[in-house]
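Input (structure):
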């Protein structure tokens, strides 16, 4: 008799299962046991990428919008927010490249950077 059939028969014997009988209490308990709730994994990274993308996108869009508080001709405020937005966009591109190259080792970075770039591009195109 092959090993798999022997193991299967042994498992059936452990559960005290008989072909004509109904399910054993162990089988009913295992089926009716409380299932773990479905967890949303990694949503915080996606949300963080979206929020940071919104901040960077609004900052970049405001750089060339004349009516914005940090737009053209606003002096120090425009320089500070514009520089931060440009640095954020540059770091977002670097994070996306790193995530694309190492997506198996860093799946959370892939979630973060893809959402981040998507939001930045959407805001710049709107």
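Output (sequence):
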């Amino acid at each position: 008799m092959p090993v798999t059939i022997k193991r299967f028969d042994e498992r059936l014997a452990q559960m005290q299962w008989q072909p004509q009988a109904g399910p054993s209490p162990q089988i009913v308990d295992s089926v009716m046991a409380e299932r773990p709730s479905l967890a949303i994994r990694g949503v915080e990274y996606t949300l963080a990428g979206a929020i940071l993308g919104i901040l960077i996108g609004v900052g970049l869009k405001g750089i060339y919008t004349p009516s914005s508080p940090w737009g053209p001709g606003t002096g120090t405020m425009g320089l500070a927010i514009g520089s931060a937005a440009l640095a954020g966009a540059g770091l977002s591109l670097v994070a996306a490249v790193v995530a694309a190259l190492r997506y198996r080792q860093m799946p959370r970075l892939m979630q973060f950077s893809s959402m981040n770039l998507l939001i930045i591009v959407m805001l710049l195109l709107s």
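Notes: The chain has a mean pLDDT of 84. Residues 76-101 form the longest helix (26 residues).
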